[in-house]
């Protein structure tokens, strides 16, 4: 039973990380119907920036909590800046091009960013300092659920709630929903669509960076390649839940997190990634619109 | 030409990029020794580079906009590219072709084994590009798991040879058939998916195949791979190393010519036109009475057939295979070839493969930056020249005046 609880909680942590990344995919897809392949790379850049900043700060001798907070903050800012720039360079000129073109451009961007970090930094695994404090009250349970995992779960929940409020209650959120429904119509009623798209990229990249910092602290090491597999998994999660829908992405992430956690715990850990892909294929065959997605008829 | 506001704009762009690349380009940390290395030179490089590049970027944009306006104004964009002019004139391209044919025949006798080997590799990519061109270029299905079929071909030869001692010539059709079989296997579940979902599922499929090959030790010998795969013989003749390399080269030439021939014929066949219709508009294509299922499946199967066949050749050429040769990036390089050359254009793909494979070989200094440049090439091609270097020419019928004279053009 304890093993089950451990796997359940492990899946929950995994799922919440996927959710932070999947949100960016789903929001961007909802607005411009494009799979932002470079999203995983943005997450990786977030983690790298955090590592660099925290290393520099630790030389200055700050205390660990301050380092963690500042590094996360800088990582979020930088990732957002990258997201913004990526959209301006690789996607904006292709707004009216066929979807295949935009997708290929996205793949190119992903490849570019990933090699950029590889060449400018290193191909080795770098240890990532875990600056998240150990809580006293978590000690009795530390063998199944660490403080880091608690922080991850709390942060994810808070971010989800804030994001939900942003989309539901603010002006820009309203504009986002309008743009997602019909871009031309949104333009007609005076919404600055380019700005809305930029904001979407910035928000999505910021949550991805947060995910990057948290998971890097949890696992304890990063390298240039983490973005690829995390990006794919998060995309799978977004599709599972029904791409374009924010609650769907969260649900899909938890489902994927549990699937992986239980499958690796009870079956075999060699095929961890295979489970995710097989799960994706099955979902797409039986419910192509995802768990929460509604299938729409294609209009001519 | 260059105005003050433009310089100002470029200055801000360069400032922005300097800010953007600061942590990653300038600081390098060594967390184990707790040392930080500052590389201020890179900051300067990024600043100057982005300043200059922003001018180029804007210039290309202006040209693109100008081209678009001309087209909208009703000008016939008759100014075809340099390549198309050559291709349309038999007097020019025939001697050219003969020259290339002679060069290709004499190649292994002029250059060293090393050069011949590189050329063989390039030809392998030409075939892979042409195969993927069927799926991506003609049928418009973005397949990111193409390398899986390549792996299927390579492993089918390696394993059949290891267990049953099957020869290369028997393995070649078997590899092709297995490739086609896997193509259909992948094709079935993804029939209903649209572009982007398809890309992810095919990517996942490629990864599944690779992970299985890596972990299923009893079947595929895991990451250590299979060594000592025999090179092909010919009518029982055993070759020396030099002879085998030359033979491999000529084999690839023959196979490439065969591929070019088949793909060319396919393109103008009933099924080829169905693929193009599918690419352009799925719904309209169905409305015209084209069986979507059959068309998509044949695209997948035929594309995969080439990959399976080339896989066998690859295994025979390198005599050693392991799963590391079949990563996703390999698929993306092949995609780059198709995109750079021009989706749907046979000669473009041949050209693209030769550029992308041979250039990094000869410019060793840049080989480190190969993938970085490939990524940039994909973006730039999509933004400024979506048709590729040598874009495929649509079959068109032109009506001229009231005489009713019909002039058919097309390559």
Features of this protein?
heterodimer; A: 300 residues; mainly alpha; 2 domains; two-stranded antiparallel sheet; B: 411 residues; ABC transporter involved in vitamin B12 uptake, BtuC; 16 helices; 4 strands; globular; disordered C terminus
In short:
The complex is a heterodimer of chains A (300) and B (411). Chain A contains 11 helices and 2 strands.
Could you characterize the architecture of this molecule?
- The complex is a heterodimer of chains A (300) and B (411).
- Chain A is mostly helical and 300 residues long.
- Chain A is built from eleven helices and two strands; from the N terminus they run H-H-H-H-E-H-H-H-H-E-H-H-H.
- Chain A folds into two domains: 23-134 and 145-223, no CATH class; 225-292, no CATH class.
- A two-stranded antiparallel ribbon of chain A has the order 1-2.
- In chain A, helix 1 (2-32) packs antiparallel against helix 10 (246-266), helix 2 (39-60) packs across helix 9 (226-241) and helix 5 packs across helix 6.
- Chain A is globular, with a radius of gyration of 19 Å.
- Chain B has two domains: 4-72, no CATH class; 87-384, ABC transporter involved in vitamin B12 uptake, BtuC (Orthogonal Bundle).
- In chain B, 72% of the residues lie in helices and 4% in strands.
- The longest helix of chain B is centred in the N-terminal third of the chain and has 33 residues, at 40-72.
- Chain B is globular and about 75 Å long.
- Mean pLDDT of chain B is 81; it is low at 404-411.
- Classes of the chains: A mainly alpha (300), B mainly alpha (411).
Describe the secondary structure blueprint for this structure.
The complex is a heterodimer of chains A (300) and B (411).
Chain A: H1 2-32, H2 39-60, H3 64-91, H4 99-120, E1 126-127, H5 147-169, H6 171-181, H7 183-188, H8 193-219, E2 221-222, H9 226-241, H10 246-266, H11 272-286
Antiparallel strand pairs in A: 1-2
Helix pairs in contact in A: 1-5, 1-8, 1-9, 1-10, 2-3, 2-4, 2-8, 2-9, 3-8, 5-6, 5-8, 6-8, 9-10, 9-11, 10-11
Chain B: H1 4-26, E1 27-30, E2 35-38, H2 40-72, H3 82-88, H4 90-110, H5 113-138, H6 146-164, H7 168-190, H8 195-215, H9 217-220, H10 241-267, H11 270-280, H12 282-287, H13 292-318, H14 328-341, H15 346-362, H16 370-384, E3 396-400, E4 405-409
Antiparallel strand pairs in B: 1-2, 3-4
